[in-house]
Amino acid sequence: MTAILEAQDLVKRYPVGDGQVDALRGVSLAVERGEFVAIMGASGSGKSTLLHLLGGLDKPTAGQVVIDGVNISTLDDEQATLTRRDKTGFVFQFFNLIPLLTVRENVALPFLIRGESVHERRQRVDELLAMVGLEGKADHAPDQLSAGEQQRVALARALATEPALLLADEPTGNLDYTSGGEILDLLWRSCVQLGQTIVLVTHEARAAAYADRVLVVRDGQILDQIELGRRPDHDPGELLTRLAVLGL
Description:
This protein starts with a strand and ends with a helix. The strands form 2 sheets. It has a 6-stranded mixed sheet. Strands 2-1-4-5 form a 4-stranded antiparallel sheet, covered by helices on one side. It has helices at 47-54, 77-87, 103-113, 122-131, 147-159, 177-194, 205-208, 237-245, and strands spanning 3-16, 19-32, 36-40, 62-67, 70-71, 88-91, 165-169, 198-202, 213-218, 221-227. Helix content is 34%, strand content 27%. α3 (103-113) runs parallel beside α5 and α5 (147-159) packs parallel to α6 (177-194).
């Protein structure tokens, strides 16, 4: 297999008063094409900071990140923006939908940003809406949808341009149990059926159990790696046992 994402010796340091805090302390990892990787850790462990660096939303103090052959750590702001646009999709805890746009228009937004014809991309948008089960609500406004439905729109939008890498930051954190399960199922299906590469940040074992492997982060470092394999039952039992051994 070929690594679609590589990070080497990532350090992220923030100034605090007269001193500094190391949010990340020399993190290295690789994610293979088509792999589903979860990053787990307690609040303040550095997992969201790591995701932001992996997606080019922030720059490391030291180290480098390579996405699909592009070293994003060396890019200027404009180049980094274009690389994020072309190579990554993001799903966040809060859905970040445009309230004045319809569901279909929100999903089509990445094509508009890239200067592509939205009309010519309508078939792709409709296919994505069908995949997430919202084909009947394409002309609704976001505020006419439930929280789970809004997150499904956000996921369809993130997948619109077939990104090399999909990054999800606590995508179930604002959802009820059932809706959260539906989003996790959709993420897993996009990996298995579409070959989508996914990196998911979560503090929930239930969510992490959907991944092929789990990276456990503590105090800005990768504490352990837990291999789960691709299991359709997503049973978190084994993961919970391993986490207990680590004191988590």
